[in-house]
């Protein structure tokens, strides 16, 4: 479980892809993977994972072009800061009118929070098993931002990392969705089967 928080040491860097801009005036949503998460497919467009579930059922404006945003995924605060800066640049280039919803898993939620704090135009952040730290506390205190916090009853990965697992107090602009069934999979919050079984979208108003 702790491997989700460990830095990547493979040195693999994905080649850049041609960007596909959103039409002028069109809102856009997107996803940000967490630590080490760039290896997975769930957040990648056209890979028939969680991305396509959200695209087809909840956010038809979810970015599906080739130049999807990714970051190093290293277990490093400076790397998350760099990722937030890069994400702001990415959003400015591709989302002309800002972002409707950003789904951020684990430390991807912090990347989204940092970007919002630094001025990125984001209307809503959906936190998926995100560690609660100062960046999360700061962003949820912004009344202009809608926050949906989806997480396990108890997340062993966050426990090993020594981070908080609850936003307290929960402000009026935030909705908490705690999965009812007992699960220990840190990635459960980005699985279609879990969202359907737990009625996550309806409970979170997504």
Structural notes for this entry:
With 206 residues, the chain is α/β, with parallel strands linked by helices. The chain is 30% helix and 15% strand. It has seven helices and five strands; from the N terminus they run E-H-H-E-H-E-H-E-H-E-H-H. A five-stranded parallel β-sheet has the order 1-2-3-4-5. It is globular. The N terminus is likely disordered.
Briefly characterize the structure.
By secondary structure, the chain is α/β, with parallel strands linked by helices.
* Helical run tally: 7
Radius of gyration over C-alpha positions, nearest whole angstrom: 16 Å
The number of E-state strands comes to 5
**Unreliably modeled segments:** 1-25
Main sheet specs: 5 strands, parallel
Major beta sheet, strand line-up: 1-2-3-4-5
Topology, please?
Blueprint: E1 28-32, H1 50-57, H2 77-94, E2 99-105, H3 107-117, E3 122-128, H4 134-140, E4 146-151, H5 156-161, E5 174-178, H6 192-198, H7 200-204
Parallel strand pairs: 1-2, 2-3, 3-4, 4-5
Provide tags for this entry.
206 residues, alpha/beta, five-stranded parallel beta sheet, 7 helices, 5 strands, 15% strand, globular, disordered N terminus
